[in-house]
Design a protein that fits this description.
By secondary structure, the chain is α/β, with parallel strands linked by helices. The protein has 2 domains: about 5-70, OB fold (Dihydrolipoamide Acetyltransferase, E2P) (Beta Barrel); about 115-360, 3-Layer(aba) Sandwich (Rossmann fold), CATH 3.40.50. Helices cover about 25% and strands about 25% of the residues. It has 11 helices and 19 strands. It has helices at about 35-40, 55-60, 115, 135-145, 170, 195-205, 235-245, 270-275, 290-300, 320-325, 345-360; strands at about 5-15, 20-25, 30-35, 50, 65-70, 90, 100, 125-130, 150-155, 180, 190, 210-215, 245-250, 255, 265, 285, 315, 335, 340. The strands form 5 sheets. The protein has an 8-stranded parallel beta sheet, with helices on both faces. Helix 4 (about 135-145) packs across helix 11 and helix 7 (about 235-245) packs parallel to helix 8. The longest helix is centred in the C-terminal third of the chain and has 17 residues, at about 345-360.
């Protein structure tokens, strides 16, 4: 299950929030690696490192690194008090060799405990739900296009990468987002929460968000079947939003460039997550002016999901200015290796969802 290697650090390269990229040598061959200093300590040139090279050797799309499991000859000090960061007791990545103990936002030791102890309502706050992590910067760009002062928080779910530090997108959005809440088994956000429900409440009541984006971290999992993909969590996020009195806005996965039939037009991921998993209603956003053939395909796929046949609301959103907003994104736009121009419809659809969410924000 794990392909282990022992290597030596030869150089430190890029660093971003929560992660550092390394050059290593393994059996005389160079190998690019990634370390999470909060887990393994700060690597230095000359360190011997134990590496998990599984994703790298498999050639996974987001797995282009060997991952540092330990710096065995120079272990980091124990955290103060013998518990997790900031005295927490919440265990994430539970019962894996690198389980991490963090401070939950609503734990008794948390300064936010009084705020969240009885919190139970999002007060109509819009929550944009999306399938892929690559949707995040496009949604943010669309939301800020009309309302540049809007406070946007990100709730990161654990369908993809567990460490928030794996995402260079998040690092690039530092100062743009009001903050990140990592929920479920993922960790490393500005705030830590056990469930999507608690994460949404923390985004609203602690980070003061006007709008929240919920999507998984980078590197979603999928088997190419109707139910075998981590994006089904989108539907659960819609349900959590409704239970807490928020307004769900569904960012659809629409593409004219994806070569896989199941993702052409309206992806089966969106059809299943919103059509079968989401029991509560959401606004499903379609950008105005899609090419005629693509628009017809999307309309046909949406018909069973939206009123009067389904329980969701179809919303068509104008796209004036959204292309410019996307091109001004502070982070590169890329999904499945395709940039903005290669898959313009995908990013435009997410930006339109962000624009609609911003329009609903108080």
């Amino acid at each position: 299950m794990v392909r282990w290697r022992s290597g030596t650090v030869t150089a430190l390269r890029r660093r971003w929030n929560g992660a550092v990229e390394l050059d290593t040598v393994v059996d005389g061959q160079p190998m690019r690696a990634l370390a999470y200093p909060h887990l393994v300590g700060e690597p230095e040139p000359g360190d011997r490192v134990l590496l998990n090279v599984t994703a790298l050797l498999m050639g996974l799309g987001t797995g282009g690194f060997a991952l540092v499991v330990a710096i065995p000859d120079r272990l980091p000090a124990d955290p103060p008090g013998g518990h997790g960061r900031d005295g927490g007791h919440l265990v994430k990545a539970r019962y894996t060799p690198l389980q991490a103990v963090v401070l939950g936002v609503d734990e008794e030791a948390s300064p936010h405990r009084p705020v969240l102890a009885d919190a139970d309502d999002l007060a109509g706050m819009p929550v944009v739900t999306a399938d892929l992590h690559s949707a995040l910067p496009a949604i943010v760009a669309g939301a800020l296009a009309d309302r540049p002062r809007l406070r946007i928080a990100y709730v990161m779910t654990d369908g993809g990468a567990l460490p928030a530090g794996f995402s260079r997108t998040l690092a690039g959005l530092s100062g743009v987002l009001a903050g990140t809440v990592t929920v479920g088994q993922c960790f490393g956000g500005d705030l830590e929460a056990t469930t999507t429900h608690t994460g949404l409440l923390a985004a609203r009541h602690v980070l003061g968000a006007d709008l929240v984006v919920v999507t998984q971290g980078p590197g979603n999992s999928g088997a190419g079947t109707r139910w075998g993909f981590s994006g089904v969590g989108v539907g659960e996020a819609v349900n959590a939003t409704a239970v807490l009195g928020g307004r769900a806005v569904g960012a659809l996965r629409v593409s004219a460039a994806d070569p896989r039939a199941r993702h052409q037009g309206l992806s089966h991921h969106s059809v299943t997550a919103y059509g079968r998993v989401a029991l509560a209603a959401a606004d499903l956003v379609v950008p105005h002016g899609l090419p005629a053939g693509l628009a017809a395909d999307v309309d046909a796929a949406l018909a069973p999901l939206t009123m009067p046949d389904g329980h969701h609301r179809r919303v068509t959103v104008p796209v004036d200015g959204l292309d410019a907003a996307l091109r001004a994104s502070p982070v590169p736009l890329s999904s499945m290796g395709r940039d903005l121009d290669a898959d313009h419809t995908y990013f435009l659809t997410n930006a339109a969802a962000g624009r609609h969410g911003a329009a609903l924000a108080g």
